[in-house]
Amino acid sequence: MTDNEIELLERPPAAADARPKGQQFKRHKRDVHGWIVLDKPVGMTSTHAVSIIKRLFSAKRAGHAGTLDPLASGCLPIALGEATKTVPVVMEGRKLYQFTVRWGEERDTDDAEGRVIATSDVRPSSSSLRALLPSYTGTIQQVPPSYSAIKVEGERAYDLARDGKVVELEARPVEIARLELVAAPDPDHAVLEAECGKGTYVRSLARDMGRALRSFGHVHALRRVAVGPFDTETMISLAELNAMCHRAAAGEVSLADALLPVETALDDIPALALTADEAHRLRCGQAVGLFTHQHRDWLAELIAEGREHGIFLALWQGKAVAMVRIDSAEAHPVRVFNYEH
């Protein structure tokens, strides 16, 4: 997407142009609830992407479910309104990345933006790389990049690194469920796919594999393909949103058509159906007893599967009422959704 197209998304409505010169336009903020799964372009920060979406929908509240570096593209789930309450659940979900490693150079940022700090003439074969991958699957200890948002004594690691200070971060356990070689287009590059959990740094993977292979390496390109329940099927680009803006201005569509329901983020969580009275109790912060035949069967099934602990979604007429925990055959509200009625 071009800078001009991004500017169009950020521009106030045409009606503002008719206001007297010098009179500031202030857009009215609305209660908007749902998800936009943005296909973030390369070169844009996640914070800037959220600000564009928030302004586009005139939303009071917005936030994203997991930062993407400016040089990365792909799946950036952005929550609006009550959907922000489900962000922690989405962030706990698996992430799927496709990335290209450039061999022969290690950089201080562990990606193409950084300064070269080590070089090698060694280029790994596909067979040697495949043989290495099992070492980086399962639960592993990983040292985050020096240029990361992790706080060190109250300051961001990347701020310290940019000031020329030595940043020493401790290794931490991360979960990598799958790591595969997709292609080796030439001796200098390898394309891989990683399915991993929260807190995993793909840049660290490239750095560590490069060192193990005596080739050195850094991330040349990175694309996030999925986050939790969100994937390529649900993503929308800024160009598509820009087109929808024009059509919405012409009265052909509503921008709300681009929103996914709040419940989409909780598709993988067992759902508890409520009556109107039970939904009212949860909205008031009160526990609901699971004593009806339907509730007892639901709870018995969870216990049989060993899933009686954790977060569950309480629904009334298909609409999210609350996220709940189960204790002593009662559903206790953890997060209550407050929609406009």
Strand content: 25-35%
**How many extended strands?**
18
Which structural class should the secondary elements be placed in?
A: alpha+beta
Return Rg in Å.
23 Å
Return the CATH architecture of the largest domain.
Answer: 2-Layer Sandwich
Which residues form runs of ≥5 with pLDDT under 50? 12-19
In CATH, the topology of the largest domain is named Pseudouridine synthase
Indicate the overall shape: globular
* Total count of domains: 3
Mean pLDDT: 88
Can you put this structure into words, describing what you see?
This protein has 341 residues and is an alpha+beta fold. It has 3 domains: 3-92 and 230-263, 2-Layer Sandwich (Alpha-Beta Plaits), CATH 3.30.70; 95-222, Pseudouridine synthase (2-Layer Sandwich), CATH 3.30.2350; 269-336, Archaeosine Trna-guanine Transglycosylase, Chain: A, domain 4 (Roll), CATH 2.30.130.10. The protein has helices at residues 3-10, 46-56, 87-91, 126-132, 157-162, 202-212, 238-249, 276-283, 293-304, and strands spanning 34-40, 62-64, 72-80, 95-103, 105-107, 116-119, 138-142, 151-152, 155-156, 172-186, 189-196, 217-227, 235-236, 271-273, 288-289, 312-316, 319-327, 330-336. Strands 1, 2, 3, 4, 7, 10, 11, 12 and 13 form a 9-stranded mixed β-sheet that branches. β17 and β18 (330-336) form a beta hairpin. The longest helix has 12 residues, at 238-249. 34% of the residues are buried. Mean pLDDT is 88; it is low at 12-19.
